[in-house]
Design goal:
The complex is a heterodimer of chains A (163) and B (282). Helix content of chain A is 21%, strand content 23%. Chain A is an alpha+beta fold and 163 residues long. In chain A, strand 4 and strand 5 form a beta hairpin. Helices cover 63% and strands 5% of the residues of chain B. Chain B is built from 14 helices and 3 strands. In chain B, strand 2 and strand 3 form a beta hairpin. Classes of the chains: A alpha+beta (163), B mainly alpha (282). The interface between A and B is large, with 87 and 104 residues.
Chain lengths: 163, 282
Amino acid sequence: MKQCFLILMMLGLPLSVAAVEQTAFTIRSTEIKKQPYSDAQTLATLAEKSSVKIVLRKGGWVSISSTQGSGWVKMLNLRSNSASEERGDNGLRSLFNMGRSGSSGITVATGVRGLSEEDLKTASPNPNELAKMKNYAVSQTQAEKFARSGKLSSQTLEYIPVQ
Amino acid sequence: MYKRTILITSLILAFTGTAAAFDIDWQKALKVGGEALQKVQTANKQLDEPQEIELGHGIAANLLGTSPLLDNKRVQIYVNDVGRWLSLHTERPNLPWQFGVLDTTDLNAFATPGGTIFVTKGLLMNLSNESELAGVLAHEMVHVLSKHHLAALQKSARMDLATDLASEALKDKAGPILDKAVKAGTEVYARGLDKSDEFEADRKGIIIATRAGYDPYGLPAVLQMLDAANAQDSSLALMFKTHPAPRARLNLLDKIMADNFDNYSAPVQTDKRFLAALAQVK
């Protein structure tokens, strides 16, 4: 993990981006851009239902390679086509899971059990854990400090009304 | 909302007053008016905020009965930092917001009334950055803001319970009625909310995350990850059962986001600290 972090730092890559190679298809005609911006140069246009290989993701953009060339396309123009390939708990394929390890597939946590419907129906309270949780809560002042240290700045925008 | 119902009731009653002149079925008109009145009465018996919080804490204790907290203070506080910052960009910033990572392999997240939010270790480990975490937390927070679980509880067969709940009885604290409500409330998590509530949480969640300075595409990226995952995997069973298909949710966000969110991005500092915090999760 640490090694991966270091390598990414050395390459100067944004840390949210990790390499994978999986496929997707376009759900509409899609422009391939030279950079991950709407006003970047258009290199080619993919027809609807074109197959692409995913290289990495950055925000709302995905770097792809295809028979039409390589570049950046909008993430929401793509859908996975590997969803039904596997059965059972045997290392899931996950197209857009560009998790921290850079490897594909769902990261499986070990050592603890799952949380089923039945568990919820027969749940009995654990007040000690609830008390512990209260201790982890942070104040508004602490949250504002956290935001500043991450260079997060508030934006003004309204909810989108139901169409 | 209540005002409107009252207005409608008044209109119906006013209408029934003139009904005879037009030879309209009095009984039917009165029945409609009566039902509307009853709705007004029920609406007036909704929980107040302290009751909402207490019910939520009861349900949260139950959820913690199914999976304890991940035993890592740093990760728990990190998730609280992100969540509390998000809460300052909502219409209910002063709720006692608290966030917890559940120590389970399942991929899921939960909200309980009054501002208690959970994300599972299984989901956390499959996120790529702080914006994705913000997207997940903001989605859950909308369920609190819009009181979706309270509505589900009232809509269920336990309408009688909901009415009792809203009565004075709850003021006793930890009384038998609260216990019943907490049990019924916990069962809502096994059934899931209305699909429309989930879509609302996606629609508003991306706005809250963007307001807080995050990448608006954090939540869509998580949905892409889930859409591409194997739906047969047991760690996704409960979430897939209780939510609309990830693809349907993606399609909705695709439609409403269009090109309107291209100018927002998250600071690189948030990526660094996400990786540092998550390196602690085993």
